[in-house]
Hints:
This protein has helices at residues 24-45, 89-97, 115-127; strands at 2-5, 17-20, 67-71, 77-79, 82-84, 104-109, 132-135. By secondary structure, the protein is an alpha/beta fold. The strands form 2 sheets. Strands 5-4-3-6-7 form a 5-stranded mixed β-sheet, with helices on one face.
Amino acid sequence: MSFGTVGFDGNNEELEDLAQINIIPLVDIMLVLLITFMIAAPLSIRGINVNLPVSHAKGQNVDGARVILTISSEGHFYLDKVKIPANKLTSRFAAIFAVKKEKNLFIRADKNVAYGRVVDAMSAAKLAGVDKIGMLTTPPSAHKD
């Protein structure tokens, strides 16, 4: 911020006060923060690493607003990268879907996970009032074996 006078008249009296805010440092800081978040955001989006099975059936795209349960190859459950114990799945699903109009769950399970773990997740979802359950897979074009 700068303060001062624009000039003096012949009698050394102030003509007008000058009060300006210098926003250049603010703009510099905001640009640095913007660039930092633009670089950091894609790095934080990466989820739990799972090796999805390949499906030749045509599926649908899943947007970010959907509830996705990830089951790792070790059989651990994750909701939005947060590990959930198996005995808390039903209560967590009930809390999430109590406020949602569409009660759809997508399961993203590693292809090597035990079938029983997927059934446990589906059972917990049905007990919590989930209407539809979808399984996420990899399309054949994205498969790299």
